[in-house]
Amino acid sequence: MRRRLGIGFWLAVGWIGLVLFAALLADVLPLARYDETLAGPPQSGPSLAHPLGTDGLGRDVLSRIVHGARVSLGVGVGAVLLGLLVGAPLGVLAGYRRKTADTVIMAVNDVAQAFPALVFALAVVAFAGASLRNVLIVLGVLGVPSWVRLIRGATLSFADREFVLAARVLGTRDRRILWREIVPNVSVPAASYAFIGMAVVVVAEGSLAFLGLSVQAPTPTWGGLINEGRTLMETAPHVVLAPSFVMFLTVLSFNLVGDRLRSLSDVRESGLEPVRQVALTPLPVPEHEVRDTLLQAEQLRCHFVTPRGVVKAVDGVSFTLERGRTLAVVGESGSGKSMLIRSILGLLPGTAVRGGKVYLSGDDLTARTPAEMRSVLGPRLGTVFQDPMTALNPVRTIGTQVTEPLRVHLGMGGKEARAEAIRLLASVGIPDPVRVLGRYPHQLSGGMRQRVTIAMALSCGPDVLFADEPTTALDVTIQDQVLRLLHQLREERDMAVVLVSHDLSVVARWADEVIVMYAGKVVERGPAAEVFARPRMPYTEALLQAAPRLTDPVHHRLREIPGRPPDLVDLPAGCAFLPRCPYAQERCGREAPPLVANGGHPYACWYPRSSDGTDRLVEGVESGGR
Amino acid sequence: MLLRVEDLVVEFPAGRGRTVSAVAGVSFDVARGETLGIVGESGCGKSSAARALVQLPRPRSGSVRLEDQELTTLRGEALRRTRRRLQMIFQDPISSLNPRRRVRDIVGEGPRVWNLPGDRVDEVLEAVGLDPATAAVRRPHEFSGGQCQRVSIARALILEPEVVICDEPVSALDVSVQAQILGLLEDLKDRYRLTLVFIAHDLAVVKNVSDRILVMYLGKVCELAPSAELIGRPAHPYTRALIASIPDGGLDLPPADTLISGEPPSPVEPPSGCRFRTRCPRARERCAAEEPQIRRVGQDHWLACHFPDLTTTD
């Protein structure tokens, strides 16, 4: 998909092109001579013969600006190219070779960068004479240290990537790796910086010219024009304003182009980024009864409006959860399981449209404003996320972070909060909690950090704990410890737990009930033991047979689910699993199967697997599908 | 033996003159056509060992022999010539492909480097399950993670290597895609008569593809045995803890929290003697004083432990 660069970018490119074109063809264009005095009446305003008026000596201002562009752009492009030609090879060398080369180059570079640039420029131009060549060389050389730094940084970040290692394993020689793997990747940030660099140089040249230290009269330069017009500010302001405005537009354009180019090197857009301007009309809520239970979700929806269409990340999910139970939400990436949690908690990005209802002990959470939700998040709903490092503030101590909810929500004083924090940290199995209070997150291991976030989630005694992939970033022996801890805390505190996981063995071991999600919908729901032993929906069955288990024989052929999860913008009309399902029939393409229970747990399928598991042996795994 | 590794040592500088001992004397061998699985938790040195096999970077000491060729002493062009025989697949499917190149160029890079005809690109793309007509002209970001991993496999295969080192090739993938890639690796192994070194942190995945499994902990080998033997009769306390930590592990082991405690120590200052002793419930004085040497405890079953649990071994 082509990226949109925006109208601003093309206007900027157009302006730079125009200035460049005028500068190159200055002698051919039907303009008055720039040094012809009394081409018109002195200090006259814009007229047909002189579109930008004349200066104090009656010279045509437009012509002088166009000729001045030669100097400005010449110096801009020339100095940047000079800086690039010297700086880029040094930067690539330092970033790719590292070790001694890097140390030496960067040491010299740091010294060069510490040199006062303006003083250097003034000195050189004053001594060597103010010619175009000298100005160009001075500004070019001054730019070298920044180039080295930029190119080295970019090279370093790419030299560490695995594709460079892969190239070496292929036996590619260094020179080819540099040209084929590194340079194309470094060239985008380099191009971006070149444009921004040109803007800097144009301003620098203008400043030197203003001080009379750039190319000397009679050759016009933009800075020189502004300097000359200074005395006429009162009587003929256009003499100053015209070159100032041209210079301003040019510098702005260079910066704009540079910025847009830089955003090109960022993560590629998928076309699924939410559109910002969208009328946030809540989705309709169907009739339902509010049950007497701890947590109830009713027809919960979460949609995003994107340039490609509406993404139904969560599409009509209902469930209830009692105290002392663990509900697991299972699904592959993109199934909507994390968005489901965020919909319940009201922690959606501003571009999401939410529908449906969430009741906590009969209290409608969806009717609350974000400010009102704050009194529920923490005291009643606790959260633990996958990466503890993003959940903890890296520059604050564990102590301040654990005591904060205690002070804010429970109104504890400093001493009391500290004592409670120590008790909490000890309860999640952290050895020596007093010492940990004074530490920063990076000083703890991943497992310890996750224990801290669990302690924080539990600090206000929540009724429901939401754990979104809480152990995915942890080692398996630590994972077992953390899950065991969550289970034990659930028992002690009589909480409910909502556990989001992609790991079926974790879910089978620790959950009471399970929801299987596919493309934003619940496709099967029920007691974990029953769903795993006798899955009815073919997707659940396939997922179970695709996961390797320790009890399988060696070289056991796993079930392969063909294809990939569906594009949420472009869902098939009927069942979303249809293209990957070996048992699909004609009806599946016409009607989406509803979630129904035929005497067992609910599932969404027209042609479910039998509840006693007999057809699994008969039809086998390999039949059809591919 | 096709690949023979002896006493491999990999160290990295850790600042302030200290060193991280990533791999501390690991030995194993791999027979032609075999899949050796290497399993261990983060920081156990399995990836460092994999990279030391291809000499990127070169190990501090030890020997890596590919048939009769010692790789650790080769330099420059001589080392480069061995590259075709030993290829590698990486964990991150996105980061292992150059975002600015098309799939045809990525996969065709090997033949171009070696001045071979590039006409096999379509064949290997088809072998890894990609349609050459549509896939070849696209760039990596237009593919899903699983498809990117297929491209990486195609890049490795086109040089017809003898050994392919797979460093966590499926851990970034969803379950359904993981099964596809594991099945693909098994198919390609037969078709191209490959020898695999398969590295992962997930014991169930490793068991699925490996003939033998090597368990590593903090740079050391704990146990090495045929897969079924290792999972069915684990003798090293760490192996037992690893199996018990997996829900639904199948073995009738005591709960994992009685088999292992605490957190892995820093590889900058590894414990004296047995490196696992700080977390081992069976550890005694001897474990701190004397490092257990690897020894044979059964048919092709190797172990480094003073007080192994041989109750499940008959």
Automatic annotation (TrEMBL), chain A:
<dbReference type="InterPro" id="IPR035906">
    <property type="entry name" value="MetI-like_sf"/>
</dbReference>
<dbReference type="GO" id="GO:0055085">
    <property type="term" value="P:transmembrane transport"/>
</dbReference>
<keyword id="KW-1003">Cell membrane</keyword>
<keyword id="KW-0547">Nucleotide-binding</keyword>
<feature type="domain" description="ABC transporter">
    <location>
        <begin position="295"/>
        <end position="544"/>
    </location>
</feature>
<dbReference type="InterPro" id="IPR050388">
    <property type="entry name" value="ABC_Ni/Peptide_Import"/>
</dbReference>
<dbReference type="Pfam" id="PF00005">
    <property type="entry name" value="ABC_tran"/>
</dbReference>
<keyword id="KW-0472">Membrane</keyword>
<dbReference type="Pfam" id="PF00528">
    <property type="entry name" value="BPD_transp_1"/>
</dbReference>
<dbReference type="GO" id="GO:0005524">
    <property type="term" value="F:ATP binding"/>
</dbReference>
<dbReference type="InterPro" id="IPR013563">
    <property type="entry name" value="Oligopep_ABC_C"/>
</dbReference>
<protein>
    <submittedName>
        <fullName>Peptide/nickel transport system permease protein</fullName>
    </submittedName>
</protein>
<dbReference type="GO" id="GO:0005886">
    <property type="term" value="C:plasma membrane"/>
</dbReference>
<dbReference type="InterPro" id="IPR003593">
    <property type="entry name" value="AAA+_ATPase"/>
</dbReference>
<keyword id="KW-0812">Transmembrane</keyword>
<feature type="transmembrane region" description="Helical">
    <location>
        <begin position="191"/>
        <end position="215"/>
    </location>
</feature>
<dbReference type="GO" id="GO:0016887">
    <property type="term" value="F:ATP hydrolysis activity"/>
</dbReference>
<dbReference type="Pfam" id="PF08352">
    <property type="entry name" value="oligo_HPY"/>
</dbReference>
<dbReference type="InterPro" id="IPR027417">
    <property type="entry name" value="P-loop_NTPase"/>
</dbReference>
<feature type="transmembrane region" description="Helical">
    <location>
        <begin position="235"/>
        <end position="258"/>
    </location>
</feature>
<keyword id="KW-1133">Transmembrane helix</keyword>
<comment type="similarity">
    <text>Belongs to the binding-protein-dependent transport system permease family.</text>
</comment>
From TrEMBL, chain B:
<dbReference type="InterPro" id="IPR003593">
    <property type="entry name" value="AAA+_ATPase"/>
</dbReference>
<dbReference type="GO" id="GO:0015833">
    <property type="term" value="P:peptide transport"/>
</dbReference>
<keyword id="KW-0813">Transport</keyword>
<dbReference type="Pfam" id="PF00005">
    <property type="entry name" value="ABC_tran"/>
</dbReference>
<keyword id="KW-0067">ATP-binding</keyword>
<dbReference type="GO" id="GO:0055085">
    <property type="term" value="P:transmembrane transport"/>
</dbReference>
<protein>
    <submittedName>
        <fullName>Peptide/nickel transport system ATP-binding protein</fullName>
    </submittedName>
</protein>
<dbReference type="InterPro" id="IPR013563">
    <property type="entry name" value="Oligopep_ABC_C"/>
</dbReference>
<dbReference type="InterPro" id="IPR027417">
    <property type="entry name" value="P-loop_NTPase"/>
</dbReference>
<keyword id="KW-0547">Nucleotide-binding</keyword>
<feature type="domain" description="ABC transporter">
    <location>
        <begin position="3"/>
        <end position="243"/>
    </location>
</feature>
<comment type="similarity">
    <text>Belongs to the ABC transporter superfamily.</text>
</comment>
<dbReference type="Pfam" id="PF08352">
    <property type="entry name" value="oligo_HPY"/>
</dbReference>
<dbReference type="InterPro" id="IPR050319">
    <property type="entry name" value="ABC_transp_ATP-bind"/>
</dbReference>
<dbReference type="GO" id="GO:0016887">
    <property type="term" value="F:ATP hydrolysis activity"/>
</dbReference>
<dbReference type="InterPro" id="IPR017871">
    <property type="entry name" value="ABC_transporter-like_CS"/>
</dbReference>
<dbReference type="InterPro" id="IPR003439">
    <property type="entry name" value="ABC_transporter-like_ATP-bd"/>
</dbReference>
<dbReference type="GO" id="GO:0005524">
    <property type="term" value="F:ATP binding"/>
</dbReference>
